[in-house]
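Below is how a single chain appears once it has passed through the pipeline. First comes the sequence as given, then the structure the pipeline wrote out for it. We keep one example in the README because the format questions we get most often are answered faster by looking than by reading.
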Amino acid sequence: MMNQITDIYQKNFINGIRHPHLYLWDSWSYVEDNTIHLYCLAISRHKINGEELNPNERNDFPFHIRHFISKDNGISWKDEGCFMSPQDISSLNYRTIWSGSVELLPNGKKLVAYTGLENIDSGRDFLQSIAIGISNNGFTVDSVYDKVLSSPIRDWKEITEKGYYLDIKDQLGSNLGEEGGPIMSWRDPFIFHDKNGELNLFWAAKVKPRVGAIARATLKAVGDFFEIEQLHTPVTVPDKDDFTQLEVPKVLYDDHKDCYYLIISSCNRLYENQPDSEIKKEMRLYTSKHIDGPWTSLGDKILGEEHLFGLTVLRSDFKNNRLLCIAPYTEAADKDLMLSFAPVFYIYLNPLRVEFLNQF
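Resulting structure:
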């Protein structure tokens, strides 16, 4: 079932993004020529027949990736329209797309990573795989690699032998979750050049049905695209037993302190369509001297009380020990805020605290 992709909204958004026509959630970004490019998942607030879409119905319709730009460090945003839609990747038999990332390459092009949800059957809506494409300018996806980077069905043996958890093949992506835990997790790829310049890909995974982890792979160039050179063993965090889902990981390198930072969004969801009142969502930060850990928590989980989730770091300012960030509100926020973007804020790293610059 399709849903409309709305046209570019002509007015700029100030202090956050409350789009009148779209629900927005999850986010990733990059900076080029002093312009911040922000991407997120999006869906129309209304069905094709004009009926209002209940946010809990989002998974019944395909998402698209929306693109916004800012030239003033996130104070104002311009809608640049659809960056990627399921039609763009129709050759890969994906029914919808989930979160990913965009990263500058040395040749000026942008590597695009995203999650594809395969079109299997109505009882397995959540079969995820990791895929990539190339954007010449950050505004459109110009070419899509027709070979899936990491497929849980194709690569099941290698993935599980590395220590990751996957359900049996014919139940992968089940709407009912995995052995009493939430739906499968093989999603939200984040592209990252480490301190040695090596190209890494991190994404959300599991080591047990109810225990999240981060997958890490190093990539190698193959023609105009990339393939996995090595899938590494799972990256886990010290408080991994305190939540059931780990999502949209972000990794940063601080060249002042020669250390890495890891940011994850976490929640205690056990099944899709679980009442919002039962779900706690928050973000957690960690640090490590090594890209594969071990990771140490920077402090208490943050942004749960503000109902913010799926942040992106717009700019890092390690000299001043802070990160300029933006994040969307969850479904638990007030109706006029839910699934829109809050104003930008700073996360100070040591000690860990959040400073909001403006409020709606």
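The radius of gyration is 19 Å.

See the next section for the split statistics.
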